[in-house]
Amino acid sequence: MVVDLWKGTEMAIVHRAERPRYRDLRPQSRLTRAGNRQETAERLLASSARKSYDPLVEVDWDADIPWDMHGMTPEWSSLYGTELWDRMTDEQRKTLTRHEAASVAGTGIWFEMILMQMLLRDIYTHDPATPHVQFALAEIADECRHSTMFARSAQRFGIPSYRPKKWILHAARMFKATATGSLAYGGTLFAEEILDMMQRDFMMDERVQPITRTVSKIHVLEEARHIKFAREECVRRLENASWFDRARVRLVLGVTAYFVVTSLVNDQVYAAAGLDVEEAKKAAAGNRHYHDKIREGCAKTVEFLDEVGLIGGPSTVLLRRAHII
Ligand SMILES: [Fe+2]
Ligand SMILES: [Fe+2]
């Protein structure tokens, strides 16, 4: 409270104006252009009114499952391209891709739950009569439906709920209770954009289960709005950020991205495909093809976050370890 009051004083404004702002150093690019907050939200609300889906109705949950199809695009599997993959039977590969798809969606549910809380905290004091608040509420409603849809999909395939390791789940309580501004929206982008890149492939891939393709299509269509919202908010929140603010966000964001990306594949997916978990984990850890896919999946987020000054510093080590950069 004291800090907030101090920030509003004339002295603080003069002090801020003297600092070189990040945007002065890097001119606004196509990526970092942010429109007026309310106008953007108005457009997103109109798009949401035109195209929103209820997965409980849109997805044919009762349709027979063609068990000879892949659960997701096999090239996105953590074992694709390894010597172990070559040794696996076709059935094992299909079981593995089904479980990996469910595991990725499970990580999606985890981050969507975090995001819903961050969004609610973020708009808590704003005027609900504004398009900005109303779109944030629409996004929360989208995420509620997405999480149910992902959970339903795994259930339909008879797959258990894959979630991040217990300690990560509990350690993230701190993040979800406190993250705000560019940190909250930057973290959201990491989770939303890698899922988006994968699901764009799943929805087009005729080798993939029909349920997974429909689920992916719904998610890709609705997430496009969330990504736009998160990117623009990220830019706005950084407008007057100091070097110290940026450095702090960079650090926590790097840690967040590391745990999101390394939680995508639950170890138990390998056991479900009848593989030795330790052997499979080792094969995945050394799988250059998979690392390239992860980098490819994160490339758009990394490019954007780099433009706004949120990539760099000590957390780069973690981003490299997770093959994000
Ligand atoms: Fe979502
Ligand atoms: Fe989203």
TrEMBL record:
Sample GO molecular function, one term: oxidoreductase activity
InterPro entries the record matches: AurF/CmlI, Ferritin-like_SF, RNR-like
Gene3D superfamilies assigned to the protein according to its UniProt record, in alphabetical order: Ribonucleotide Reductase, subunit A
Name the record gives this protein: p-aminobenzoate N-oxygenase AurF
